[in-house]
Inverse folding.
């Protein structure tokens, strides 16, 4: 039963991220950090570094809106930091 669950999950994941509409989406407050990683196809370290986050392996699903509220900064400011880091990563030839 567990194998079936993971097979279905993998299929849904693959179909969703194969759709070009889900790639390089404008960064928005509802997005989780993991969503940004997948949409922009960058390593988690790029997103964590841009937002000065430690990668502690807990897998917490925090949205940019929640992160901004905790820090007292706007989503636009976080998006600007992410845009800069993603651009630098891609320009370095790591894409």
């Amino acid at each position: 039963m567990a194998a079936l669950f993971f097979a279905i999950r993998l299929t849904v994941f693959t179909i969703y991220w194969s759709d070009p509409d889900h790639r390089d989406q404008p960064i928005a407050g509802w997005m989780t950090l993991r969503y940004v990683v997948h949409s922009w196809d960058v390593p988690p370290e790029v997103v964590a570094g841009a937002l000065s986050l430690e990668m502690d392996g807990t897998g917490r699903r925090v949205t940019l809106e929640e992160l901004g509220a905790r820090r007292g900064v706007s989503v636009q400011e976080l998006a600007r930091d992410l845009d800069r880091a993603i651009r630098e990563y891609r320009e370095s030839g790591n894409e």
User: Anything to note?
Assistant: Helices lie at 2-18, 33-40, 44-50, 64-71, 75-91. The two ends are 37 Å apart (CA to CA). The chain has one domain: 24-91. The mean pLDDT is 84.
